[in-house]
Specification:
By secondary structure, the chain is α+β, with helices and mostly antiparallel strands. Helix content is 36%, strand content 18%. It has helices at 14-21, 43-51, 60-70, 89-97, and strands spanning 2-5, 8-11, 33-36, 39-42, 73-75. The strands form two sheets. Strands 4-3-5 form a three-stranded antiparallel sheet. The chain is elongated, with a radius of gyration of 22 Å.
């Protein structure tokens, strides 16, 4: 498959990516990731290995798009949990009674 990463064209195949990533130890995943074989790699690490370019030269989106088109499972950023407001006992009792108390 022909794809463009960091303004350079690449002809990538699934078997070629598998071969390139063979023996590469995955770094710790903190953002987007790609599952290659039984391992989960950060997207930027995969892009660096398959393109032999510096990680600053391409975006994670470019690599995610290419890996998805090749049939690899990709995961985006984990969604942050919405912080819940902790009510004091007085506020909780007031809320149950339907009388909001501002403190």
């Amino acid at each position: 498959m022909r794809c463009v990463i960091a303004r350079f064209p690449f002809n990538l195949t699934k078997s070629g990516v598998l071969e390139s990533m063979k023996g590469v130890k995955p770094e710790q995943v903190t953002g987007e990731s790609v599952i290659i074989g039984r391992r989960t790699y950060p997207v930027k690490q995969v892009g660096q290995v398959i393109t032999r370019q510096d990680r600053r030269d391409f975006s994670a989106g470019e690599v995610l798009r290419a890996m998805t088109q090749l049939g690899f499972t990709c995961r985006g950023l984990p969604r942050a949990a919405v912080p819940t407001r902790v009510l004091s006992p007085l506020q909780q009792a007031s809320a149950m009674l339907g009388i909001p108390v501002t403190v």
